[in-house]
Design brief:
Elements: E1 30-34, E2 40-47, E3 50-53, H1 54-61, H2 69-75, E4 87-90, H3 100-115, E5 119-122, H4 136-146, E6 153-156, E7 159-161, H5 173-185, E8 189-192, H6 196-209, H7 227-235, E9 241-244, E10 253-258, E11 262-267, E12 274-276, H8 284-294, E13 299-303, H9 310-320, E14 326-330, E15 333-337, E16 340-343, H10 354-360, H11 364-375, H12 379-385, E17 406-407, H13 410-422, H14 426-440, H15 442-450, H16 452-459, H17 475-482, H18 502-515, H19 522-535, E18 538-539, H20 542-547, E19 554-555, H21 556-568, H22 576-583, H23 585-596
The chain binds one RNA strand of 75 nucleotides through helix 6, strand 11, helix 8, strand 16 and helix 12.
Length: 597
RNA sequence: GGCCCGGUGGUCAAGCGGUCAAGACACGGCCCUUUCAAGGCUGUAACACGGGUUCGAUUCCCGUCCGGGUCACCA
């Protein structure tokens, strides 16, 4: 029989205010009439005046749902947080593929929440079972953790942490269904039995007629099914989805304040979007609204690809009678491809995956620092003024986030990386290198691990002081950069300078070897090189050579170049005296001798 | 195609009606210097286009063009 219901506003105890009026008092196109039992029942004036007992329909559709929306409102009360605290959430789908875009958003979410004394939630959006990948949650958590993104609440590897869970959407099925049931009761949602084929047909017809695609208005075939028709479909055991009975009219525009973009103006939604799929699991649209409300999220950061579905979301919030959170639509990261900008794609662009940077050995702090400069236009300026300050000292705001497509700039990342390594101690660089090498280049780990003090010394070249060297960018590049120090990796990468004749070279090296004394300090050592140069017709000072090039074969720089190639295999290297001190007399002599052969 | 978002130097970007249109990266030059790196100085380089509104538009409005996003029982 007809079930009695007397809905009290869900908002009564949630502290959320609803700006659009009170839908509970007068649901759209709904009537509350007296039955002969003198109970109140909800009925919907479906179309042209026939009435449907939507309460009965809801019961038919969701017999297993016994909880009420009020139960959940009570279960997830408003949070008691300091004024201005922001609650944000990251909602990755469990493919395990975390990319730069996710990280970009995650940093913003994290800053917003933690800077304001709020809460940062990890919610796994697993409503599409086709996407699920084994162990994905663990991967997500660990890759974010690597880049310093930590959650206060939400999914953890084997469960949940927090009082607003569960934090995996599939586990919340009953919650969504409860609210869907409410909507059906109120006539604001209805079952749709259309098959995929029928939907395709509609789509094709719309294409032919050049009308907008979608399930709406006259195209919404099952929107106005009578109870009898619904019963028939049900009796046949046909699967169905629950659709929103949209009340919007695209001719009307509404405005909404976006945290990043300011005032947005969009047409009202009129699509009867799917709320619950045939398997009873919600679509993103419905899950997002329910979860963000129930988890008391205050700020929704998401990519701009969600902008076009914002009207659905706004209508669902409105229909539920809830105050929507602040939407913040970020820009997508782009890449320059054959002259045109395009969205970074996970299929085509390996550099989109976080693992790309990790395997190359970019320091997480560098990636974070770079992303932060892209994220907030005044961050870079702040960083220059406060080179060593903690990020907590920076006031991160959504309105400083850009809204035009940002190109990922590898040059800039490199620049930032150099600063990061320049600011570290040799020990820190070493530890980082070892960690990296162990998983991504075991041979390197062996070499680096064999002589820690040797590696430490060479990583210390030019470190500290006013003007530290800035030539370390990422681990694999660093390893390449220091390889020549290890005999097993040493090779003659560059040629000897061509302006020094082979016989001169030989004489130079022979005499250098004879006169080499590791006890010499930098100055004494270089004096010897000058002297050696002069003895063989090379100017002891480059300036002398410049003044009078005809008088010399070259200058001390050319002689140094010979030594440099012999010792390092390269034309470019850090300070020669310093690298010899580190290599040790034995290795120095051996290399010179080898070059002589 | 409909709808939405965006368009300042090569790249990232300040800028909210009056600025010589910041800064960073990249690039060039000079200085320093035995190479490299760093550092210092310095230079090239931009408001997509066309109409308005205004005494005055990069800033406001309209149109055009270009780029991107989105139109699923995916997120």
């Amino acid at each position: 029989m007809v079930k009695r219901l007397r809905h009290r506003p869900l908002t009564a105890d949630s502290g959320v205010r609803f700006p659009y009026g009170s839908p509970y008092a007068k649901p759209i196109r709904m009537e509350c009439c007296r039955s002969f039992h003198s109970n109140f029942i909800w009925s919907a004036n479906i179309k042209g005046g026939h009435w449907m007992d939507t309460t009965k329909l809801a019961e038919m559709l969701f017999p297993q749902i016994t909880k009420t929306p009020e139960d959940f409102e009570a279960l997830y009360p408003a949070r008691s947080l300091p004024a201005g605290a922001k609650v944000t959430r990251l909602g990755p789908s469990p493919t395990g593929f975390i990319h730069l875009g996710n990280l970009y958003g995650a940093f913003a979410d994290e800053r917003l929440a933690h800077q304001s004394g709020g809460v940062f939630i990890l919610r796994i959006e697993d409503t599409d079972n086709k996407r699920e990948v084994e162990g994905a949650v663990e991967t997500i958590i660990s890759s974010l953790d690597y880049f310093g993104v930590h959650f206060d609440e939400g999914a953890v590897v084997d469960g949940d942490k927090g009082n607003y869970g569960p934090y995996r959407q599939r586990q919340r099925a009953g919650i969504y269904q409860t609210f869907a049931k409410l909507l059906v009761q109120r006539g604001q949602a209805y079952p749709c039995f259309c098959t995929e084929a029928e939907l395709n047909e509609i789509h094709e017809e719309q294409a032919a007629l050049k009308e907008n695609f979608g399930y709406y208005g006259k195209w919404a075939k099952h929107r106005d099914l009578s109870s009898q028709q619904i019963q028939e479909h049900l009796d046949l055991g046909e699967p169905f989805v629950i659709r929103l009975r949209s009340q919007g009219d695209p001719a009307n525009y509404f405005t909404i304040e976006d945290g990043i973009r300011g005032t947005l103006s969009m047409p009202e939604n009129n699509q009867d979007v799917v709320l619950l799929k045939a398997d009873g699991i919600p679509t993103y649209h419905f899950a997002h609204v329910i979860d963000d409300h129930l988890m008391r999220v205050t700020h929704i950061l998401r990519g701009e690809e969600w902008l076009s579905t914002l009207p659905f979301h706004v209508e669902i919030f409105k229909t539920m009678g809830w105050q929507p959170p602040v939407f913040c639509h970020t820009t997508v990261l782009m890449k320059l491809d054959e002259g045109t900008k395009r969205k970074l794609s996970k299929r085509k662009d390996p550099e989109l995956g976080l693992d790309y940077y990790r395997s190359l050995g970019y320091h997480p702090a560098a990636v974070r620092e770079y992303l932060l400069t892209v994220l907030n236009s005044n961050y870079e300026e702040w960083r220059m003024a406060n080179p060593t300050a903690s990020i907590d000292g920076f006031d991160f705001t959504t309105d400083k986030m850009g809204s035009s497509g940002a190109l990922f700039d590898l040059d800039k990342l490199s620049d930032v990386s150099k600063d990061i390594f320049a600011g570290m101690t040799a020990e820190e660089v070493y530890a980082f290198m070892m960690d990296w090498a162990k998983t991504y280049q075991p041979e390197a780990a062996e070499v680096l691990g064999a002589e820690p003090s040797y590696v430490l010394k060479l990583l210390n070249i030019g470190r500290g002081g006013e003007n530290p060297r800035k030539d370390l960018i990422f681990a694999s590049q660093i390893f390449e950069f220091i390889q020549f120090f290890f005999d097993s990796y040493f090779e003659m990468t560059d040629e000897f300078p061509e302006n020094v004749a082979p016989e001169d070279r030989k004489a130079l090296l022979t005499e250098y070897l004879a006169g080499y004394d590791p006890q010499d300090d930098a100055q004494a050592w270089f004096e010897k090189v000058r002297q050696l140069s002069a003895e063989h017709g090379f100017a002891a000072k480059p300036k002398e050579y410049k003044k009078n090039p005809e008088a010399y074969k070259g200058h001390v720089g050319d002689v140094s170049a010979v030594l440099r190639v012999a010792l390092s295999g390269r034309r470019n290297s850090p300070d020669l005296w310093e690298i010899q001190q580190i290599m040790g007399a034995q290795r120095v002599k051996a290399r010179i001798q080898a070059a002589l052969r």
